[in-house]
Design brief:
The complex is a heterodimer.
Chain A lengths: L3 E4 L2 E4 L5 E7 L5 E8 L3 E10 L2 E4 L6 E3 L9 E3 L8 E8 L8 E2 L3 E5 L1
Parallel strand pairs in A: 2-11
Antiparallel strand pairs in A: 1-3, 3-8, 4-5, 4-9, 5-6, 7-8, 9-10, 9-11
Chain B lengths: L2 E3 L4 E5 L4 E3 L2 E3 L5 E8 L6 E7 L7 E2 L2 E6 L4 E6 L8 E9 L6 E2 L3 E6 L1
Parallel strand pairs in B: 2-12
Antiparallel strand pairs in B: 1-4, 3-9, 5-6, 5-10, 7-8, 8-9, 10-11, 10-12
The chains are: A mainly beta, B mainly beta.
């Protein structure tokens, strides 16, 4: 079955360490996205990519980095520069713009202590 | 910048009754798309319904329907014959035509009582 896989489901890190969240899709979608979800704040866009080897900053890109070397993969690195990294992270993909919806992975809960 | 506002942090409904969740958005664009997503306790985001702004007819998906008022920039979700499985967070989202990204509201938590 086609879908989006995020791993791991739960991730624990010490403050000051970089950590990479995995996102893989087999839907053959061109566009991929990373959102952060905090209580009471909805989903906020971190980065998105419309095509391989290209990506754009979203609304809260500071302290994060991404790469898009393959169409299927869009990993997110949470760097030590991110001041408040503990959150729930959602990866999504879509065929592009218009009425085509975003398809989401199951998310990764990152806890930094 | 476009924004999406969900003014009801929490709502509740009795099983089998009808409930309406509110969503307003701010945009100067005339061509755009609107979505409602459901996030149950599993935290999986599920598309509920979508609407193209150029279509005057309100979208319907089984028990879910929208009231799209373009002039008022309002996009409310009506859930009929509510079921216990409808209990979830509901997010309204906006996408401008020609753009990939979706802008989400802060969500409404819906509780369904037996």
């Amino acid at each position: 079955d086609g879908g989006i896989t995020q791993s791991p489901k739960y991730l624990f890190r010490k403050e000051g360490q970089n950590v990479t969240l995995s996102c893989e899709q087999n839907l053959n979608h061109d566009a991929m996205y990373w959102y952060r979800q905090d209580p009471g704040q909805g989903l906020r866009l971190i980065y998105y990519s419309q095509i391989v080897n290209d990506f754009q900053k979203g609304d809260i890109a500071e302290g994060y980095s991404v790469s898009r070397e393959k169409k299927e993969s869009f990993p997110l690195t949470v760097t030590s520069a991110q001041k408040n990294p503990t959150a729930f992270y959602l990866c999504a993909s879509s065929t592009g713009s218009g009425v085509s919806p975003l398809h989401f992975g199951n998310g990764t809960r990152l806890t930094v202590t | 910048a476009q924004t999406v506002t969900q003014s009801q942090p929490e709502m509740s409904v009795q099983e089998a009754e009808t409930v309406t969740l509110s969503c307003t958005y701010d945009t100067s664009e005339s061509d755009y798309y609107l979505f409602w997503y459901k996030q149950p306790p599993s935290r999986q985001m599920i598309l509920v319904i979508r609407q193209e702004a150029y279509k005057q007819q309100n979208a319907t998906e089984n028990r879910f329907s929208v009231n799209f008022q373009k002039a008022a920039k309002s996009f409310s979700l009506k859930i009929s014959d509510s079921q216990l499985g409808d209990a979830a967070m509901y997010f309204c989202a906006y996408r401008r035509s020609g753009m990939d990204k979706l802008i989400f509201g802060t969500g409404t938590r819906l509780q369904v009582f037996p």
